[in-house]
Every structure is written in C-alpha cells, then in structure tokens.
Amino acid sequence: MNTINGLPLHPLLVHIVVVLVPLSALMAIAAVCWPAARARLGILTPLVALVALIALPLTTSAGESLEEQVGPSAAIERHAGFGEQVIYWVGPLFALAVVWWALHNERVTTAVHARIPASSKLSQRAVAVALGVALVVVALGSLYIVFRTGESGARSVWS
C-alpha cells in the first residue's frame, strides 16, 4: 500500500515524523532542564518518541516506493541519504527518554533504590547527569537531522 486515494503515502506519513520527532526532542530537553516539566510530562515523552520511532520505517518504506516511481535524481538521493540517518537519532532518543523517565519515576526508583547500597548514591547522581547530557545531545541531533531531511526533501520536490 503505497498510496491513499491515489496520493503517494510518503508525503502524508512524513508529517507524523516532522511533527513528532521535534516534539519528542523538545519534550526531552524540557524534561532534562526543567524539573517541573519533567513531572508534568512523565511517560508522555517516551510515548511520543515511540510513535515517532514506529512511524519512521513506514515513512522510509513509502519514500523508497515513491523514489522508484519518480526515478533517480541527485536531490532525491541526497534526501534519501538524510532520511536513512533519522532512525539512528530517533532510536536513541526513545531509549534515552525511557531511561530518563524510569530514573525519575518514583515507583521505579523505589524498587531500584532498595537494591542499591547507600555508598553508590554519588555514582547514581553522576549517571543521571551523564544521561541528561546524552539525552540533550541526542535530542538536538534528532532536531538537526529531521531539519536536514525535510529541507532536502523540499528541495527535491521544488527543484
């Protein structure tokens, strides 16, 4: 199924990715930098990232079908190259968002803290800082690669 009502599926699916990847990245950055946002967003950040992650292979597959119909061009190849990289940013974004959520979820931390000796509490803080930095870096990277992919896709359509 590469079309809906005669329209190519890729331009329709790409809107899911273009909205949810930046949204989940911004939610992740807010959760790391702003404790009040972290409390309010809760499990929502990993869930939005999961939907974006699920939409990616569908969008990529539909894009490959559209590429076969349109034919090869340098602009489309550039766009496809960027598009293939998005999964390498959104996958870690989802994984890190889940770990960040679990690290700050009271039920999860209560269960984990019962098994960890008090002497390693300092190392837990270091892990949280490193995880927060990694999450922000991956979120920024995913914002960048989605921008580059979308920009190259628009250029391929309009040139």
Could you characterize the architecture of this molecule?
With 159 residues, the protein is mainly α. The chain has one domain (3-158): Four Helix Bundle (Hemerythrin (Met), subunit A) (Up-down Bundle), CATH 1.20.120. Helix content is 85%, strand content 3%. It is built from six helices and two strands. It has helices at 9-33, 35-41, 44-70, 74-103, 106-113, 121-158; strands at 3-4, 7-8. The longest helix has 38 residues, at 121-158.
SSE pattern, N- to C-terminal = EEHHHHHH
Low-pLDDT stretches are none
Count the E strands.
2
| CATH architecture grouping | Up-down Bundle
Strand content: under 5%
Mean pLDDT: 90
Helix content: over 70%
Shape: elongated
Give the C-level CATH assignment: Mainly Alpha
The largest sheet is: 2 strands, antiparallel
Distance between the termini: 27 Å
Rg from Cα? 19 Å
| CATH fold label | Four Helix Bundle (Hemerythrin (Met), subunit A)
Strand order of the largest sheet: 1-2
Structural class: mainly alpha
Provide a count of the helices: 6
Tally the structural domains. Answer: 1
Offer a quick outline of the entry.
It contains six helices and two strands. The protein has 159 residues and is mainly alpha-helical.
Write the layout of secondary structure elements.
Layout lengths: L2 E2 L2 E2 H25 L1 H7 L2 H27 L3 H30 L2 H8 L7 H38 L1
Antiparallel strand pairs: 1-2
